[in-house]
Amino acid sequence: MLQNASELAAMAEVLGRSTDYRVLRRLAPRPISTPTIGQETKVGILLDTETTGLDHRTDELIEIGMVKFAYTPDGRIAGVRDTFSAFNEPSVPIPPEITALTGITDEMVAGHRIDETSVNAFVGGALITIAHNSGFDRKFAERYWQVFERMAWACSATEVDWRSHGFAGAQLGYLLNGAGYFHQAHRAVDDCHALLEILDFDLPTIGAPALAVLLDTARRKTVRIWAEQSPFELKDSLKRRGYRWSDGTDGRPKSWYVDVGECAVDDELAFLKAEIYLRDVEPRLQTLTAFTRFSCRV
Q1: Is residue 70 domain-shared with residue 26, that is, in the same domain?
Q2: What's the structural domain count of the chain?
Q3: Is the domain of 279 the same as that of 145?
Q4: Are residues 199 and 279 in the same domain?
Q5: Do residues 173 and 155 both lie within one domain?
Q6: Domain housing 80
């Protein structure tokens, strides 16, 4: 016998109280709401892009999704203010593997262009843009719209230590399941709605929403340390330490590098001196903030 919605909700509530079951609810996007009079809030943007590939210099954007939201000073979501979703037709056919991943076809994007004026108007008044892979999304966003160069950015995938808060990993689907939901993944605005619920989830380890942790991390400065001319045979030691490789094709040094908090710089320099260079070194240092982190301009 088919149950109605209220009966199913009651059954889910009973199962949810049992330690033998976990209930996942289909994510329903929050409706757009108006600001509450007297409530102090700020505005942020959740952003996700779908592209023809991974290289921001040669591949092209095929879809952007954004959710504009309000949040309180303590990092709690106060409501959705607006949404934005648009296709962009690339100059080449969408690769089959991208269509398989995203569900976006050449027919869906045919004739579509994303109006820059509309994007600028949508993000106007926002203080920060958040993506679940800002190292990827920011580069594409800046390439298409200069307004994103002037905004602060945060990365919900890398700037929250999800494992320390009891999650299996930082993948969006894992986090959403941990918050008690499932959704249709790999469409841009849908992923933004999913990210909103993840950021509004109270982390059991601290009793505060994930957004509060993310904003606190984003406000902190980090330092990029370049291990230039490091011995080739020690590359595995650098990789284990968390260093990444820059091939120099984008104007940056051809070198291993790592980003650390300001308080960890001395320890990192000591590591390079003792285990990599075996001498005193003064490597190139770059101070990064939310306005420069994840940008292709750095």
Answers
A1: yes
A2: 2
A3: no
A4: no
A5: yes
A6: 5-219
The backbone torsions φ and ψ at residue 93, rounded to the nearest 5 degrees and listed phi first, read: -60, 150
Q: Of all helices (H) and strands (E), which one includes residue 269?
A: helix 265-271
Examine residue 298 and state whether it is found in any structural domain, yes or no: no
Which residue, 70, 208, 50, 223, is CA-closest to 133? 50
Per-residue pLDDT of the chain (298 residues), as tens digits, is: 456 777 777 787 777 777 777 788 889 999 999 888 889 999 999 999 999 999 999 999 999 999 999 999 999 999 999 999 999 999 999 999 999 999 999 999 999 999 999 999 999 999 999 999 999 999 999 999 999 999 999 999 999 999 999 998 999 999 999 899 998 766 799 999 999 999 999 999 999 999 999 999 999 999 999 999 999 999 999 999 999 999 998 889 999 999 999 999 999 999 999 999 999 999 999 999 999 999 988 8
Question: Taking a C-beta distance cutoff of 8 angstroms, is the pair 44, 80 a contact?
Answer: no
Contacts of 165 (CB under 8 A, 6+ apart): 203, 204, 205, 206, 210
184 in any annotated domain = yes
User: For the whole model, what pTM was predicted?
Assistant: 0.92
